[in-house]
Amino acid sequence: MKMRLLLAIPVMFVLLFSCTAEPLQDDTIIAVAENNVILEQEVLAVVNDHRASLGLNQLEFSEIAYKYANKHTDYMISKGSLSHDNFSARASSINSEITVKMVAENVAKEYDTAMEAFEGWYQSSSHKKTMEGEFSHTAVSVKRNAEGDYYYTQLFYQE
Known about the structure:
- By secondary structure, this protein is an alpha+beta fold.
- The chain has six helices and four strands, in the order H-H-E-H-H-E-H-H-E-E.
- The chain has a domain of 101 residues: CATH 3.40.33.10.
- Helix content is 58%, strand content 17%.
- Helix 1 runs antiparallel to helix 2, helix 2 packs across helix 5 and helix 3 packs antiparallel against helix 4.
- It starts with a helix and ends with a strand.
C-alpha cells in the first residue's frame, strides 16, 4: 500500500501541474503504464500470498515470461477477446530461452483490480489449479484496450 501511494503522489503532481496539453498526453501515457505495472505487481503479490497460505513456494518474477505475457496481452487486445491462441508457441519460445519442465497460463479481462482477477481465476477449477501448481516462476502482463478494459496474461513455468 505504501508503494502504491509513493507512486501515485508523483503521478498526481505531474497530472495536476502540467502546463500544456502535449506533455499532459505523455504524462497520461506514463501514468497509465505505471498503473498497469502496479496491477501486475499486485496480481503477483495476491497469487504469492495465496500460495503461501497453502504452504507452497513463492513464484519468482521472470523477465522471459513477462516478454511473452506482454505479447499475448497485446494479441488479445488486438482481437478484442480472451484466448489461449498460440500457447504452444509461447511455451516453446520460453523453453528455447531457458529450459523448462512445464508452462501454463491464465488469462482474464475486464477486472478492474488484482483481487477481482485473482477471484475470477480462483472460482475456475482449471485456473485455480494453475495458480496452485508446481511452478517456480511467473510474470503478469496487464494492459488496457482503447475502451479502458483491462486484459491480463499470467504465464507460469517450472525450471
